[in-house]
Amino acid sequence: MDSKKVVAITGASNGMGKEAAKLFARRGWFVYGGARRVAKIPTTDGIRALKLDVTDSASRQQFIDTIISEQGRLDVLINCAGYGEYGPLEEISMANFEKQFATNLFGAAALAQLVLPQMRQQHSGRIINISSIGEDVYMQLGGVYHATKAALRKWSNVLDLEVKPFGIRSIIVQPGGTQSALGEIAMSNAKKNLQPNSPYQDLVTKIDSMLSGSAASSATSEDLAQVFYRAATDQKPKYAYFNSWTDRLATHIARVHPVLWAKGLTLFLNRQKK
Questions:
Q1: Active site residue 229
Q2: In this predicted structure, which of 20-34, 62-76, 233-247 has the lowest mean pLDDT?
Q3: Catalytic residue at 145?
Q4: Active-site annotation holder among 5, 18, 22, 149
Q5: Cβ neighbours of residue 246 closer than 8 Å, sequence gap 6 or more
Q6: SS3 of 107, please?
Q7: Core-most of 89, 135, 268, 271, by most CB within 10 Å?
Q8: What whole-number distance in Å separates Cα of residue 203 and Cα of residue 133?
Q9: Among this protein's residues, is 13 annotated catalytic?
Q10: Which of 145, 200, 229, 241 is flagged as catalytic?
Q11: Which of 214, 77, 228, 203 is nearest to 141 (CA)?
């Protein structure tokens, strides 16, 4: 049995999850990367690619069972799988609403239940939950996505209180804008969720323009992978990790001064071209 530390990373086929898998492997960890598109998971030394659908019970069970049976331990679980189901709250279907929660929250919670018995037996372990500054900041069309991230934060905080006596931590990472496919996928979903002759068509166009203009100044997936690594290895981990002070400031303004946040967002959005 290998003496290396073992990390399981969901959503390892692209973006932050993919870069985290490569970083942990370079740092000498044994990495189990899970994703539906296994072929896109890195195949460098130290990474074992496994098929994983976080919304499927049997898939989750097989993913964790494989890790425990092969390694006999699991030091860190990084719940990175997620996406943005954007769309007007009046028009987005309840099926897509439920799909968003199943991926961004329920999958993470179910995987945590599967790994905790092993971590309690070890008297150690960390569950890193990739939320977003979007658990505090918010914008039009992102209501369902924001709701999942806010719920993930509260779930993670309570879990941390419950498992800390066993030497385990549940920690949140709050990425801000990131150069990944997340925004593109979110806006693609927003357009799909529009009803025929929707009164929200102009809003979708403006939000699309705003997000496209901010992409160039966003953090990279490599930047966030470094944050994930700190959350997994800090001797005294924080309750939440940010990539930058501007991300932390944005969450503070939205949380403490919601009226100011809403006014600023409206003014900025009104400057976007239709």
A1: no
A2: 233-247
A3: yes
A4: 149
A5: 176
A6: helix
A7: 135
A8: 22
A9: yes
A10: 145
A11: 203
